[in-house]
Design a protein that fits this description.
single chain, alpha/beta, TIM Barrel, eight-stranded parallel beta sheet, two-stranded antiparallel ribbon, globular, binds fe (iii) ion, binds zinc ion
């Protein structure tokens, strides 16, 4: 069975997102933990949580994916911004425990001139400061497109971060198909070899989720502009190969394509049609 979901608005709470996912025949979804601009999070509503937990259990959902604000930069040169990132991680992870055993994705950050090595060190230190033995949430580092001074556009960089994390079983990777194509991994022509590289460098056991997006820009453009499924440079043939790849097909796929709910509904239907059970 294809495990699929899309990015949903968290404004009406967890149970509302779960209901919306069911309506569009998804069995998971992604959401922002808080407003990416103002960093404000909604108060936890216990009734909403109870209802959510019941819905996902009754409908056999797979793990849902929370996304940290993308405006957060854990490896900024400004201490206040680094501290804010840490504070938000701690608060988000605490909130995630209301919906235990799910996943929390973040962008490793931009080193803004400090250099990749320094950035990697700060990110791994931050993770070591916020991860607890007790947490049931898996934190995912997202593969990035490499725009500006972004860290995480190379598998080696993510591997180095994970290597420095003490509680390694609490971290994994979310692979974004638009980002890795933009960063120079040719999944259109060499999907097998890219997956092999991921396995050799990071290990496929660390791959926990896929952001399934087409790309508005050609190979290695370092741009990070998502496109609707089949309408970009990846194309439907590549998307079909990705969701059916023997090393990937069991993973949850999350759409972050430029769509309203109707567009997501159509993409999910299309993907289910081309998925081979
Ligand atoms: Fe992201
Ligand atoms: Fe993404
Ligand atoms: Zn992106």
């Amino acid at each position: 069975m294809l495990n699929i979901g899309c990015h949903l608005s968290a404004s009406n709470g967890y149970s509302e997102m779960a209901k919306q996912a069911i309506e569009i025949h998804a069995n998971t979804f992604q959401f922002f933990t808080r407003n990416p601009r103002g960093f404000k999070a909604k108060d936890i509503d216990e009734k909403d949580i109870t209802e959510f937990l019941q819905i996902v259990q009754e409908n056999n959902f797979v793990k849902v994916l929370a996304h940290a604000p993308y405006t957060l930069n854990p490896c900024s040169t400004d201490k206040r911004i680094r501290d804010l990132a840490k504070e938000i991680f701690i608060d988000d992870l605490k909130r995630m425990e209301y919906i235990p055993n799910n996943m929390y994705n973040f962008h490793p950050g931009s080193h803004v001139g400090q250099g990749i090595q320094k950035g990697i060190e700060i990110i791994s230190n931050t993770l070591n400061d916020v991860i607890t033995k007790e947490q049931t949430t898996t934190i995912l580092l997202e593969t990035m497109s490499g725009k500006g001074s972004e860290i995480g556009s190379k598998f080696e960089e993510l591997k180095q971060i994970i290597d420095k994390v003490k509680l390694k079983d609490k971290v994994g990777v979310c692979l974004d198909t638009c980002h890795i194509y933009d960063s120079g991994y040719d999944i259109v022509n060499n999907l097998d070899s890219v997956i092999e590289q991921f396995d050799n460098i990071i290990g496929l056991d660390k791959l926990k989720a896929i952001h399934l997006n087409d790309s508005k820009n050609p190979f290695s453009s370092h741009k990070d502009r998502h496109e609707q499924i089949g309408a970009g440079y990846l194309g439907i043939k590549t998307i079909e190969k990705i969701i059916n790849h023997s090393k990937l097909k069991h993973l949850p796929f999350f759409l972050e394509t430029p769509n309203e709910i109707n567009g997501y509904t159509k993409e999910i239907e299309l993907l289910k049609n081309i998925y081979k059970d």
